[in-house]
Amino acid sequence: MDILVDSAWLKQQLGSDDLLVLDATAHLPDAVRDARAEFAAAHIPGARFLDLESFIDEGSPVPKAVPNGEQFAARMRRLGIEPGTRVVLYDDSVVRSAARAWFVFRLYGHQGVAILDGGFAAWQAAGGPCESGAGNEPRPSEYPVPDAQPIVRRKADLLGNLGSEAEQVVDARDAARFAGEDGSGSAGHIPGARSVPFVSVLNDDGTYRPAQEIAQVFAQAGVAPDRPVVTSCNSGVTAAVLFFALERAGHRGTALYDGSWLEWGSDPATPKEQGPART
């Protein structure tokens, strides 16, 4: 299974004993939308609701931190997922939140996890069937506590990277927030960061652009293809879109700054840089 699948593929695979579809929708706070209620109203048949907004480590000092290994395993058990289960993630969110869920699965080494290209909108456009309701309560599974892969960066790592730029920092926020323009609500960006708004790796319909085009987007932003990259955004969601896009483009050595701007921007001791992106 590729890491990106389309609706035609999912139609053929739906109902397979080893396949589980998860709704990984999460909305921005100002969207005034309820992901769980939307799932109950309509979802892909047999899908289960991941509840991505609660899939965090609330005990971490990092805002909206990825879940720890125990929390990941507990959620897998509750959803009835085994280590060998193939998982397809989808969303109905403007921030393409399925990528965040995909990143968490990748963090804990789950093999066989993919994103439905274009999400729920693409499924509906392709005439995919839907069902309503909260879904059946799955039978709990056994899932061992996994070790994390070294693909998360912390604030201390980013501070240590300043000046050397051993890892290229790429910011997924829009250009105004990156620059710290008046009215953007942002004080700028991490010094030395490159700007690649997450929408630039997507087509207008929310599907991912071809791998070659994604590679060109990063190259035009001044990102060297042969050097490590750390993706960042506001809260770690759209940073995962860039992480996934880089994976699609064949880039290796990518990590994600989990605290992102929520952590960096709120710390008066961290340096901030303003102005437009440089290439």
Key descriptive features of the protein:
Oxidized Rhodanese, domain 1; 10 strands; alpha/beta
The end-to-end span amounts to 36 Å
Mean pLDDT, to the nearest integer, reads 96
- CATH architecture tag of the largest domain: 3-Layer(aba) Sandwich
How large is the count of helical segments? 10
Mind summarizing the main beta sheet?
5 strands, parallel
The share of residues in extended strands comes to 5-15%
CATH homolog superfamily of the largest domain: Rhodanese-like domain
CATH class of the largest domain: Alpha Beta
Taken in chain order, the helices and strands follow as EHEHEHEHEHEHEHEHEHEH
Structural class: alpha/beta
* Rg (CA only): 18 Å
Let me know the number of strands. 10
Strand line-up across the major sheet = 1-5-4-2-3
What is the approximate shape? globular
Unreliable parts: none
Give an overview of the whole structure.
There is one protein chain. It contains ten helices and ten strands. The protein has helices spanning 7-13, 35-41, 69-79, 98-107, 119-125, 155-161, 175-179, 211-220, 238-248, 260-264; strands spanning 4-5, 19-23, 48-49, 86-90, 113-116, 152-153, 168-171, 194-195, 229-232, 254-257. It has a five-stranded parallel beta sheet with strand order 1-5-4-2-3. Strands 6-10-9-7-8 form a five-stranded parallel beta sheet. Helix 9 (238-248) links the parallel strand 9 and strand 10 (254-257). Helix 4 (98-107) crosses helix 9.
